[in-house]
């Protein structure tokens, strides 16, 4: 009896050890990162990049650059050449086989496509195609600057597909340049309809990013994060924390609002060689602004 009991205990020990190893492998394969290296995830934030940052390259070049910057998420934009031996461009009309190929290549890089935009449509049929494409690709938030007449349709589609639509702001005089305009347009509609706060474009429009975030409290679904060298329409991107955006106050406000969602790094300067700029901004973000 003792011999059998010892065998049982040894088997149980080996099984427990095996499960520990499997768990560790799953952690590595699911992204290869820890909360210590990605402190923003403790807050429910997903730090990634807008592929438009790397628009001089293919989508899969952008994915590789995101991975090299220690980022696990990407927001695709329509029209970018795909690359990765996949012909064509990022397009919500692409066939299912091509979608699967893209998802497989993303999985191999441990990068998830969590956003799509800035994208729009002129008909209900095309909006449905955008939502169906986004659902198939695992997208959480579509970024757009839609016609206000379509907002109820989009609110209904958001609820049907369980996908957010975040209204993006280009600088004044674009229609949605001021958060007051967006908030008035979405009032009384689905909670999945909200803002994609483009920090840099608020600065270019003469708006204070912190005050704008405070106005939009509870409606910020997605961010295009930038820091600029000046509060001017002609300003350019600089490393996060080195410009006029007041990054520390922005992060504190997002924490205060209990923001949950994707923060897309967008660096629209030094276009041909900006990977190092994004990497430095990510490092600044995690080391300087993620302290308790």
UniProtKB/TrEMBL annotation:
This is Sugar phosphate isomerase/epimerase. Keywords: Isomerase, Signal. GO terms for molecular function: isomerase activity. The keyword ATP-binding does not apply. Residues 1-24 form the signal peptide. The keyword Isomerase applies. SUPFAM superfamilies: Xylose isomerase-like. Residues 90-282 form the Xylose isomerase-like TIM barrel domain.
